[in-house]
Amino acid sequence: MPDGKKQYRVAIVGTGAIASGRHLPAIQAQDGRAAVVAVVDVDGDRAAAFAAEWGVEHTYTDLDTMLATERPDLAIICTPPAAHHDGVRACLQAGAWVWCEKPPVLSLAEYDALSAEEREGGPYVGYVFQHRFGSAARTLREQIATGALGRPLVGICHTLWYRDDAYYEVPWRGRWETEGGGPTMGHGIHQMDLMLSLLGDWREVRAMMGTLDRRIATEDVSLAAVSFESGALVSVVNSVLSPREVSYLRFDFSEATVEVSHLYGYDNSNWTWTPLRGVAEERSAGWLPATDVRSSHNVQLAEFLDAMDRGGRPPASGPDGRRSMELITGLYQSAITGRPVTRDELEPGNPFHAHLDGGGRYTAGVPAVVAR
User: Fold this and answer.
1) Model pLDDT for residues 261-287, shown as the tens digit of each residue
2) Using only C-alpha atoms, what is the Rg of the chain?
3) How far is CA 149 from CA 132, 250, 287, 293, in A?
4) Can you give the pTM of this predicted structure?
5) Which Pfam families match (predicted)?
6) pLDDT category, 372, cuts 50, 70, 90?
7) CB 162 within 8 A of CB 220
8) Counting beta carbons within 10 angstroms of the beta carbon of residue 178, is it exposed (0 to 12), middle (13 to 18) or buried (19 or more)?
9) Alpha-carbon span 150 to 140, nearest angstrom
10) What is the sign, positive or negative, of the torsion defined by CA atoms of 102, 107, 112, 117?
11) 1 has pLDDT over 70
12) Tell me: the pLDDT tens digits for 159-202?
């Protein structure tokens, strides 16, 4: 155990692929700071198989029973999105801190309701936005804060992925009431969160979206132009129709361009810094990260545990975590209503605050004959 660090009892809620593929390895990478004491899944056989694979002693099919019996310090929510709100609320009310997979919840109304369950000094709920935490993003964030690259001017934030029809055979996918939205909500949210963590608060969004090729109720592609409080303008595209997949962000500052091209995670090699012609070589060399830490669940969980140690709010929670939900809400409202949306509109009473489709205002459409 690292000096001065505590050990926390952890419960895993939901035992699907994200739990085994990302969260258990992340826990095992914490030098003994976290130990899984229980797993919960509505499918008892799946919970038992997961527990046997990872050496977890206790399994449950009911969350409330697990919370009352095990009293974990931390619950990690890995369920489908529609179950996030009730699961997080139950854990907070039981006194457990919560780390919840993306997308956080299905609406700003649900997000705000969970924020109201938090208490000063904890427990808090934070959300999985691991791309913020790689060394290259940290270095760029520091450079923006100090003005080392000049003013942010132009940006690109593109999540161009491919998901076929079979992907949407999972019943909760592609439906507003169970997934909250399409690729804007379920896929592009990671890159948009990274963008927001770097550029800060947005001011206005103008958007379009469509259901062009997948037989789903949500969009399968969205495009937006976003203005920031700094004055920067950014192009945002989210797609599940793109055979050559890429996650691409570019930021043009007055003295340099910074780019990252990856898919599901990056290290320093995925980033480039290009100085403005004439910028001193010795100065631009100092822009590169001094260390190489890959974006991952591992590194975000370490920061979450640090926050638990000090009894403070973790990153990607509260108002900080809300910004991504705000932008997604504004993007959907703009695309559906056909008008610009400002951030200050996203308050209770706005139908898009309660439902990301504005309460059934989006009608998906695909061509009668789709070329294959």
Assistant:
1) 999 999 999 999 999 988 766 666 778
2) 21
3) 19, 13, 9, 22
4) 0.95
5) GFO_IDH_MocA, GFO_IDH_MocA_C3
6) very low
7) no
8) middle
9) 12
10) negative
11) no
12) 999 999 999 999 999 999 999 999 999 999 999 999 999 999 99
Structure token digits, residue 68: 């009352």
By the 10 Å C-beta count (0-12 exposed, 13-18 middle, 19+ buried), 196 is classed as buried
Owner of token pair 């129709």: 241
Q: Alpha-carbon dihedral of residues 153, 182, 344, 348, nearest 10 degrees?
A: -170
The closest of 227, 253, 229, 249 to 152, measured between CA atoms, is: 253
* Chain centroid, CA 232 distance in Å: 22
- List beta partners, residue 235: 156, 225
pLDDT over 90 (residue 260): yes
286 phi and psi, to 5 degrees?
Answer: -75, -5
Phi, psi (degrees; rounded to nearest 5) at 244? -90, 105
CATH of 135-297+324-354, one of 1.10.260.40, 3.40.50.970, 3.60.15.10, 3.30.360.10: 3.30.360.10
Encoded tokens for 188: 């592009």
Domain-wise residue ranges, the chain: 8-130+303-313, 135-297+324-354
Q: For domain 8-130+303-313, give its CATH number from 3.30.70.1280, 3.50.50.60, 3.40.50.720, 3.40.1000.10.
A: 3.40.50.720
Q: Are 332 and 357 in contact (CB under 8 A)?
A: yes
Would you call 66 helix, strand, or coil by DSSP? Answer: helix
Assess contact for 15 and 46: CB atoms under 8 A: yes
> Which residue is associated with the tokens 């591992």?
298
How far apart (Å, rounded) are the C-alpha atoms in residues 39 and 9? Answer: 12
The DSSP line for 215-226 is: -SSS-SEEEEEE
Across the chain, what does the average pLDDT equal? 95
The tokens for 229 are 């409080």
Query: Is residue 344 classed as helix, strand or coil in its secondary structure?
Result: helix
